[in-house]
What we know:
The chain is about 20% helix and about 55% strand. It is of the alpha+beta class.
Amino acid sequence: MRKLLISGAGMAMLFLSGCMSAPGGIAPSTIPITSKDSYTVIRREAEGSDFGVRLVGFPIGPLASAYKALQSAKEKNNADALINVTAENRYKFFLIVVCIEEMVVTGDAIKFKIAGEDVE
């Protein structure tokens, strides 16, 4: 009987946990770029993320932010902007009670140039 109870509890935990992903959007760049602008791609598929936690659907602390995820991607790569940008929301559920939300922003990190010099 005890083995059956432990197996049942394990199965319940397995079925009450899970994860999900949802597309958040696509953009050509994070700032306007004109034909007069010159830039160098310094990293392909640069990625940044931000997290938030919910308990029974209510946020505990700040929610996941696309702005913070974008800033994280730019800071990690010392970039001025991102091009070919995509955003995605990822959710991980634990016993249906706790949800960890992750906002992920991915794109090509670029550095602008003026007359061949890096912009600082």
